[in-house]
């Protein structure tokens, strides 16, 4: 720890990085009954903290390594940090990025002078290609997190936090991908102010550091979600794990809805749009504040970046109300008879309706997909459901149903009651030209496709709901075919939203 403190205090970052403010979130503080502070790393030249570690690593290279050039693998913020750092120092930089990287990020790297090489569909493929190119061309590989100089550069954030807020701090919440930021902040804070809790926060679908700490050694996740692409890492770094295991006071996880809610909180307080990874630590802070009403100091979250794809905003807006516990999604069964639709609307009364999907059904029962806005959905949900059930309505809570919120809500009304042997799958595949065709070619023509819904969410991976007619005796062969495609998928045939609105 002492060695890392020395390296942090000696880090070269301010030739290109700026000291960012620690700002109060007034509205959220009032809501939580806590002193909430946000460290504004979105104000860096590349809109992310990554510039700190990248510049500190590259600035320390000897002359021969500088003349050869540097290389990295990244689909986002680290790429821009390396490109700008190399440009500032007059060094050639090669940036290997997955083919699936959104064009806005590719353009940003090129703007800062990076030579972009597009390889593979995933970060892992880009990483392997970058290591190979580094060996072939004699380039220095700049690791995004598992490097002492990178960790020290990121640790300068902790210096600024403690300098700007010498008063009581209960906890600092840090987003974790590979762990470089958390390792740097924990090293400095625990040396100077060991009473301050340092808490890591990871996405629920990419919690590699939590899995490693729980296991006692590093693990490789089978797959990671890509909504928070800035922290979508399958394995924590070796050095970062060593530090985080010893110094962190815990690791929390947050789901997509919680991150969307935190993005909205940051916008309402600061009028900025954080990227999902940038709002991740605030999502963890909110969960901590709710679980720990007795506090002894400020709560600090790191807004680690604001490189948000504009076309992702609609997805964020749709999910923020659920993440903030302000929206309830319900599937309500009503009698298919004259006047029943009107009676149901009367039951809803003056409640704010955010969504209402209905279509006539012939079997005497109609199903309504309804969204209700409320200030405290978490506590009000059970009350509302009981009220509806007491009136004789069948109610299914689908607020946390991914298939319902991503697909079914846009498809209500289409049914195929005479269709036999339909299998419903929720799949992901790389968002790149030709990926959809390759997906369909992979399934082949042995089975009839009966349903298909795709919607672009501004992410690197497309999300699809697909129906396929598969006879029971052919199910094993079909499952083997799907497994061979290499695309993550979940069987949703028994899903309530599908059964009520589409079957």
Q: How many strands, which pairing sense, and closed or not: the largest β-sheet? A: 6 strands, mixed
Query: Care to count the β-strands?
Result: 18
Kindly give the count of domains.
Answer: 4
Structural category is alpha/beta
Query: Mean pLDDT, nearest integer?
Result: 88
Q: Based on the structure given, which CATH architecture of the largest domain is correct?
A: 3-Layer(aba) Sandwich
The rounded Rg comes to: 25 Å
Describe what is shown at a glance.
With 503 residues, the protein is α/β, with parallel strands linked by helices.
What does this structure look like?
Helices cover 42% and strands 21% of the residues. By secondary structure, the protein is α/β, with parallel strands linked by helices. A six-stranded mixed beta sheet has the order 1-2-10-7-8-9, with helices on both faces. It starts with a helix and ends with a helix. Helix 9 (180-192) packs parallel to helix 11 (238-247) and helix 12 (256-270) crosses helix 14 (313-323). The protein folds into four domains: 2-49 and 148-321, Rossmann fold, CATH 3.40.50.1100; 51-141, Rossmann fold; 325-400, ACT domain (Alpha-Beta Plaits), CATH 3.30.70; 418-501, Biosynthetic Threonine Deaminase, domain 3 (3-Layer(aba) Sandwich). The protein has 20 helices and 18 strands.
Could you name the key traits of this structure?
Rossmann fold; Alpha-Beta Plaits; six-stranded mixed beta sheet; single chain; 503 residues; alpha/beta
Give the arrangement of secondary structure elements.
Layout lengths: L1 H8 L12 E3 L1 H7 L3 E5 L9 H10 L3 H6 L1 E4 L3 H13 L3 E5 L5 H9 L3 E4 L4 H15 L2 E2 L6 H17 L4 E7 L4 H13 L4 E7 L4 H8 L22 H10 L3 E4 L1 H15 L5 H16 L6 E6 L9 H11 L3 E9 L4 H9 L3 E7 L6 E9 L3 H14 L3 E4 L4 H5 L15 E9 L4 H9 L4 E8 L5 E9 L5 H11 L3 E3 L4 H6 L2
Parallel strand pairs: 2-10, 3-4, 3-6, 4-5, 7-8, 7-10, 8-9
Antiparallel strand pairs: 1-2, 11-13, 11-14, 12-13, 15-17, 15-18, 16-17
């Amino acid at each position: 720890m002492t060695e890392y403190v020395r390296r942090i205090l000696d880090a070269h970052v301010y030739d290109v990085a700026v000291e960012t403010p620690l700002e109060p979130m007034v509205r959220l503080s009032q809501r939580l009954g806590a002193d909430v502070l946000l460290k504004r790393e979105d104000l860096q030249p590349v809109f992310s903290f990554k510039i700190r570690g990248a510049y500190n690593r590259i600035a320390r290279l000897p002359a021969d390594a500088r003349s050869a050039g540097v290389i990295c693998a990244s689909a986002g913020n680290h790429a821009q940090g390396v490109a700008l750092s190399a440009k500032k120092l007059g060094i050639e930089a090669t940036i290997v990025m997955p083919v699936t990287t959104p064009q806005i990020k590719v353009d940003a790297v090129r703007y800062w002078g990076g030579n972009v090489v597009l390889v593979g569909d995933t970060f892992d493929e880009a990483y392997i290609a970058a290591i190979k190119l580094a060996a072939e061309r004699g380039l220095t590989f700049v690791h995004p997190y598992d490097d002492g100089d990178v960790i020290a550069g990121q640790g300068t954030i902790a210096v600024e936090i403690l300098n700007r807020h010498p008063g009581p701090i209960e906890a600092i919440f840090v987003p974790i991908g590979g762990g470089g930021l958390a390792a740097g902040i924990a090293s400095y804070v625990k040396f100077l102010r060991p009473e301050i809790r340092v808490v890591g926060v990871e996405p629920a679908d990419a919690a590699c550091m939590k899995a490693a700490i729980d296991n006692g050694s590093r693990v490789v996740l089978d797959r990671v979600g890509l909504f928070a692409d800035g922290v979508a890492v399958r394995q924590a770094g070796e050095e970062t794990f060593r530090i985080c295991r010893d110094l962190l006071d815990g690791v929390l996880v947050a789901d997509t809805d919680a991150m969307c809610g935190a993005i909205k909180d940051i916008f309402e307080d600061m009028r900025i749009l954080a990227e999902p990874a940038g709002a991740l630590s605030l999502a963890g802070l909110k969960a901590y504040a709710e679980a720990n009403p007795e506090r002894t100091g400020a709560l600090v979250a790191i807004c680690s970046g604001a490189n948000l794809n504009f076309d992702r905003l609609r997805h964020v807006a749709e999910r923020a109300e659920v993440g903030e516990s302000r929206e309830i999604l319900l599937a309500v069964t009503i009698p298919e008879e004259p006047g029943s639709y009107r009676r149901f609307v009367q039951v809803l009364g003056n409640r704010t309706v955010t969504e209402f999907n209905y279509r006539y059904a012939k079997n005497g029962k109609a199903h309504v997909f309804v969204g209700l806005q409320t200030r405290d959905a978490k506590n009000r949900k059970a009350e509302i459901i009981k009220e509806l059930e007491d009136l004789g309505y069948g109610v299914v809570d689908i607020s946390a149903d991914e298939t319902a919120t991503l697909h079914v809500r846009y498809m209500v009304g289409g049914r195929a009651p005479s269709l036999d042997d339909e299998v419903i799958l929720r799949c992901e595949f790389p968002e790149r030209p030709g990926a959809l065709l390759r997906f369909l070619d992979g399934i082949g023509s042995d089975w009839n496709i009966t349903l298909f819904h795709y919607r672009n969410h501004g992410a690197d991976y497309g999300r699809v709901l697909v129906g396929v007619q598969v006879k029971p005796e052919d199910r094993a062969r079909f499952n083997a075919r799907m497994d061979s495609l290499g695309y993550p998928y979940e069987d949703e045939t028994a899903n309530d939203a599908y059964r009520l609105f589409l079957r």
